[in-house]
Design goal:
The structure is a single chain. The protein is built from 4 helices and 20 strands. The chain is an alpha+beta fold and about 325 residues long. It has 2 domains: about 150 residues, Mog1/PsbP, alpha/beta/alpha sandwich (Protein Transport Mog1p, Chain A, 3-Layer(aba) Sandwich); about 150 residues, Mog1/PsbP, alpha/beta/alpha sandwich (Protein Transport Mog1p, Chain A), CATH 3.40.1000.
Amino acid sequence: MQFETFVSLYGFSLCYPANWMQSFDLGRALFSSPKRSGVLYPLTINTVQTNSPSTTALADQIRRTCLKIDGAELFDEQTIQLCGLDGYSCSIRYADSAPAPDDSSQSVSKQALVLALPLHSGKATTLMTFNSELETFATFNQEYVQPMLTSFQLEKEYRLPAEGYRRLARDEYGIAIDFPKNWLISGLDQQNVAFRSPKQRWQIDNISLVTSRREGAHTLRDFCALARSSFQSDADAEVIGEHKSTLGGLPSYSIEYTIVDRLQVLNQGRQTLTVTSNGTLVNLTTLAPKDKLDEYTPTFQAVHENFIIKSDALP
């Protein structure tokens, strides 16, 4: 069997069958198989930043979540070791409420193996769930689950967020952003994420990250031209400077501008644009009231300097 490698921006990797399709849903990595029509996602991986959770706390949390599933049977709970990490695993039998593959009204009996691993001294936790039809789970476990778990590895040079910062990873685009942990995530969808300082009185986002992919080859020059045209069409915005820069190890271009918001407050911002090797257009914008910009500048600089672009998205 041939395998591909999934590399998480939280500092670990896992091999999965090459014919499985990979997709993402707001931070969760989802893997679907063309041969397992009765299970939508044989594997899901959800990794979040945490504050030193114990294995006992992880077990309690997963146990409570699993028991909320109607008719679920929780069994085979145990502490595990994977790649030198102490974690927790359990198995669940349940009846899926979705229609059976043959479109009959009967529900499908399934079994899941759930593994939780604290990463990097408890600074993050990854939750892996392996799903299969109940009657084929033993074969699924032997042919797929065990080889995937054996392939699990930690990156040796993983860099944790600085003190006082959290990390939001977008594995689907191969990027990650560190932001102050006391800031509000004011917007989040598949392409956009925005952050707002608790000191921000007006309803503007102080940091926003827009990621997208467009068909065809787009160069950094093309991307900058699109950005300039958007400023030209906005009567409240004025470009005050442009310069070359870097972002996550990639050449980038920065556009400095001022803009008047709906409350007639003058704000000053910076758009930093780059294009990764996998075709992702990245626009990192910082914005603050012009008379308070000095208060925000150290945070904005830290966000730019610690921005991560995964190695396979670099040239």
